[in-house]
Amino acid sequence: MFNYYNNETIRKLVIAFGSLFNSISIKQINKDGSLRTNTVPLTYAPKEKFVKRITQLSSISDATRVQFTIPQMSFELTGMAYDGTRKFNKLIKKQETNNTGVTYSYAEVPYNFAFNLYAYTRNIEENLQIMEQILPQFSPEFIVTINFNNLYQKIDVPIFLNTTALTEEYEGDFSTRRAIISSYQFIAKSYVYGEIKSSPDIRGITLSLDTFFSTGITA
After folding, report:
1. Domain CATH for 103
2. What single-letter DSSP state applies at residue 129?
3. Per the domain annotation, does 3 fall within a domain?
4. Which of 99, 125, 141, 218 keeps 20 to 30 A from 72, CA to CA?
5. Beta-carbon count within 10 A of 112 CB
6. Number of C-alpha atoms within 13 angstroms, CB side, residue 146?
């Protein structure tokens, strides 16, 4: 029953989700008053890891200590839940015929995948710039098209933005570095696909005449 296979369904969904936010940029002011445009780096990491890196100094050597630069963004897959409202008959089979035979797979299983996205900035202005590039794209969903495997090509996956929050991470005295963090919670309505199997092409049929006449049927 449990044969090894890996369609990389979830991995492809995670990559597709992250690609939505890998080109966000903000405007910053130089010392001479001119503006520069900076692309905000995106990383797969939980919020707690980034907050620790922002608020604490890291050591390159005993004599050199550096701070983590912001703005930065990160995202993570936080959970998944079966969605019975999109259930198909599990005996439904999708197949494709090629030169070597037939490849097929049984009906996909619907799951809702939960993602969190975080944006870290030094001030509120930079964070609001990021927020205004994200919020208008989800009204309330944004649809991405993914090629999951050879049988399931160009599958539309709606991604819904549920909630948005803006917080300030600040602990300790006035010398402690602060970070403005906006958090976004998403639900992607996708699928998990089963094993792709194959069967050889039927090239011919062998019929025994002895068996044919023994049934009492005459030609």
Report:
1. 3.30.2000.40
2. H
3. no
4. 141
5. 16
6. 27
What would the pLDDT profile of 31-40 be if each residue is shown by its tens digit?
787 888 889 9
54-104 residue pLDDT tens? 666 555 444 444 456 788 899 999 999 999 898 877 777 776 676 666 777
Rounded to an integer, the average pLDDT of 154-165 is 94
How far apart CA 74 and CA 40 sit, in angstroms, is 10
Inside any domain, residue 1: no
Quote helix, strand, coil % in the chain, to nearest 5: 20, 40, 40
- Does the residue 219 lie in any domain? no
Note down the domain range covering 67. Answer: 9-214
Number of separate domains in the chain: 1
CA distances from 78 to 21, 46, 47, 140 (A): 17, 9, 11, 20
pLDDT at 66: 44
Mapped onto helix, strand or coil, the DSSP state of residue 19 is helix
Note whether 71 and 26 are within 8 A (CB): yes
